[in-house]
Amino acid sequence: MIVTTNWIAENYSKFNSLYFGGNLPNIKFKTNRSKQSWGFAAFRYDWENDTIIPESITISNYYDSPEEVKIQTLLHEMIHIEDYFWHPEHFIRNGRKVSSRSYDAHGYWFMEEAKRLSNESGYKITNHVTREEIAASTLSKRSERNMAIRKNSALICAVIGKNGIWYFK
Questions:
Q1: How many helices and strands (H and E) does the chain possess?
Q2: Pick from 10, 17, 5: which is nearest to 121 by CA?
Q3: Mean pLDDT across the chain, nearest whole number?
Q4: 78-91 pLDDT per residue, tens
Q5: 10 Å Cβ neighbour count for 29?
Q6: Taking residues 43-49, what's their average pLDDT?
Q7: Which of 14, 17, 21, 64 suits a disulfide with 140, CB 3.0-4.6 Å?
Q8: Which residues are paired to 40 by β-bridges?
Q9: Residue 96 CB-half CA count within 13 A
Q10: Pairing relation of β-strands 28-32 and 51-60?
Q11: For residues 145 and 137, what is the distance between their CA atoms, to the nearest angstrom?
């Protein structure tokens, strides 16, 4: 499944009502083609109030995954939005970003919330992408095309040295 921003918005609204009491804020929704991150929750710092404001959720379409995997990714990111919204002190204190040694965004608080959400929803919410999720996913058609283009194109750099010898890289 390749998600759209409308799909993310509809499911965010539905899951917000079902599992978060409708208390999560309105945010923006984005898609990208990141290979490294299957999803990402973002916030911005509010200097006036020394707090953070949940900003957006981005879901990657690099992989074509079953809808269940995309939902689990969305629910994972919604836990981050909840954390930003209700516990900004986990991330910012006195105008400074909290170090990862002080607070692990996927640590105890996250795992307790993931356990609650997994029990209520029936989905398997974890702090990472599981082997099963990876195995159930394939490259999206667009990612396949981009990989083929990269394989079929090459950049060659030729340099003539002082001794007249050509060097290729």
A1: 5, 9
A2: 17
A3: 88
A4: 999 999 999 988 88
A5: 19
A6: 87
A7: 64
A8: 58
A9: 5
A10: parallel
A11: 16
Report whether 42 contacts 79 (CB < 8 A). no
- The token pair at 123 is 């989905």
Report residue 9's pLDDT band, with 50, 70 and 90 as the boundaries. Answer: very high
Q: Which of 82, 58, 75 shows the shortest CA–CA distance to 127?
A: 75
Name the 3-class secondary structure at 131. Answer: helix
Residue 94's pLDDT is: 77
Q: Which residue has the tokens 């959720």?
A: 57
pTM, entire model: 0.83
Considering just the CA atoms, what is the radius of gyration of the chain in Å? Answer: 21
Residue 2 and residue 66: Cα distance in Å, rounded? Answer: 9
Beta strand segments in the chain, E: 28-32, 39-46, 51-60, 63-64, 92-93, 96-97, 138-139, 158-160, 166-168
Tokens standing for 32? Answer: 């990208």
- What's the token pair of residue 40? 């990402």
Six-digit token pair at 108? 């105890």
SS3 61: coil
Residues counted in the chain? 169
Q: Where are the alpha helices (DSSP H) in 36-107?
A: 67-86
